[in-house]
Each structure stands twice: as structure tokens, then as C-alpha cells.
Amino acid sequence: MDSIDVPIYLQSDRTRIDDALQELRRRKRGGLLVRGKDECRLLFAGDLLRARRDGISAVQRISGGQPVMVVTEEHARSHGVDLRDLQRRPREFETMMEHHQRSYAISDPRAPSSVSHAVPMLVTRSEELGRFLRMTGGYECNGDPKHFFPQPYASAGDDCPLYPECSRPDGSIPKVKASI
Ligand SMILES: [Zn+2]
Q1: Which CATH architecture has domain 2-134?
Q2: Which phi and psi angles does 140 have, rounded to 5°?
Q3: What residues have CB less than 8 Å from 3, skipping those under 6 apart?
Q4: What is the pTM of this model?
Q5: 25, 46, 88, 93 — which has fewest CB within 10 A?
Q6: What ranges do the domains of the chain cover?
Q7: Ligand 1 (single-atom ion) residues, CB below 5 Å
Q8: What is the whole-number distance in angstroms between the Cα of residue 54 and the centre of ligand 1?
């Protein structure tokens, strides 16, 4: 498991995708959270880039994303996890995630016992998922159709990991580069 602070936006706000991408680059993060009243989802930089290409301008307008479990006092009680620090009881955490079929979790910021957290931490089940989120901004391939990363994992200079879904006019393997 891994724990990382990522930008959080409210579903009821309107955040420009360009501003969110800039924030991801500044904080060297590969994803962000969008919080609704009772649910929370994770969007990767690649999701933002793809949406921007499709003409969407606000982060909140992007559909889908990875569901994030919002751990409440009740969950903490029934699974024996620590709301203030989800990483403190890794075995109980894993069982809870397995039970709820989730790969990501945050503590419910409204829970009284989590107030000590100035910045809510996103906790991931695997270290690899944490690695995606520590990538700066987003990446894209120079093929057609264009792919966006992270998720799957790619870094600048790599051959596109989704080749041969994409191709280049000259027949060479498309390369991954940082998106602007
Ligand atoms: Zn590609």
C-alpha cells in the first residue's frame, strides 16, 4: 500500500482542466480526486488530457474515473481500521478494500476523528498504483489514435505501450512524450 496527497476538487465546483493540469505539474502528481456529497473518484492526468482533446473544459464534466472508497467511522469500526491513519493497520485495510472491491480510499473528512488531518491522504492498495500518481502531469504518444498516460504506466521516451493500437505514417513505433 501507499499513501499520497493529491489535489481534491469538489464536484459542485467548476475547475478548468488546464488549471488542474497545471496544478498536477506543479505538485508532481499524476491524478486528482473529485469529491461529491457521498462519493469520490480518482481521475488520472491522462483522463484530463483525453477529455480536453474531446472539447470538455471542466474537470467536473469528465465522467467515469476510478471509484475511491470514503472510509467512514462506521467502516473504521466494523473493519478495525484507523481513520486518522489508514496505513497503520495494513491487514485490516486490505480486508476492507477486498470486501468493498476498491483499490483507493480516503478517510471521510467529516468524521470527527480524522480532523487531525490537514491534508486528506489518498491510500492505494498497491505500490504500483501509488507510482502512477507520483508521475508529473500527463503523457501522450505521438501515434494515431493518440494514447494518454499514466494508466497504463509510461514515461517520456518509451515506445507507446499500447502499440500496435496506434501507428505512425512512416511505420515507426509511436513514442511517449510529456503533454503540454
Ligand atoms: Zn499510442
Answers
A1: Roll (3.10)
A2: -145, 160
A3: 86, 87, 121, 122, 123, 124, 130
A4: 0.86
A5: 88
A6: 2-134, 138-180
A7: 141, 143, 147, 160, 162, 166, 174
A8: 17
